Hints:
Elements: E1 14-25, E2 28-39, E3 43-47, H1 54-62, E4 69-74, E5 77-78, H2 84-89, E6 92-95, H3 107-112, H4 123-128, H5 131-151, H6 166-179, E7 184-188, H7 196-211, E8 215-220, H8 223-227, E9 232-237, E10 240-245, H9 247-252, H10 254-269
Parallel strand pairs: 3-8, 3-9, 6-7, 7-8
Antiparallel strand pairs: 1-2, 1-4, 4-5, 9-10
Amino acid sequence: MAPVVPPPDPSGERMLETTDLTRRFGGVVAVDRVSISVGRGELCGVIGPNGAGKSTLFHLVAGHLRPNAGRVRLEGRDITALSPDRRARLGLAIAFQSVRLFRGMTVLENVMVGAHAWTRHGFWEAFLRLPQHRREERAILDRAVQALDRVGLRADASRLAESLPIGQQRIVQVARALCGGPRLLLLDEPASGLRAGERAVLADLLRELRAEGLSMLLVEHDVAFVTRLAGRVTVIDRGRVIAEGTPEAIREDPAVIAAYLGRERERRSA
């Protein structure tokens, strides 16, 4: 059975690179010439106060927004103009902040949806139950079971996905992403709203995936959660990169401290 996660690549080649990404909404510059990169097998974090431009940057990388300027490259290929589904076929998978599960479907069925990016047979093969479709369907089932094994949810495969606690629903989303055999996993605020125990389970899973060689870009508000996981962190504020470096350096950076404390003061005085 093919592995869910690609093996580590010691070449050090960049998996993801953005160059001078810029996005405006009317007169507001939400992302201002942001350049970041993720190496193969690397977990990189992007943090910033609320309203810093993190979500806009995430959607620019995912393909849900188009930049006004700048480029996005995946494994050296320019994907700036590609749709989200084309990016998925190239190995870019997404776990959203808001849980996006299919209600009325089991955990296993939800995870199987993640394999759509590499399916090759269409409506008529499925309708006629042709042999090639049956083989593909079996391969998708095997991938989904393997992904559930990987995230520790095999025992819940037959449960309705919406019946799980929110922490496990987030992990179902990760399993669905793994089912497609991603080259790069984008995570948008995955720890948001989770209890301490759920956050610990999620953090352990991300550490294990990183150790297995999966490249990840983790976009989060929570500084502590990111700095415990990422090898390198980029900090943005008001759409611009204000710091980049190791978690240790980021925690002590005066610009980062000022950005977070300044936004907190603004919130309290509002």
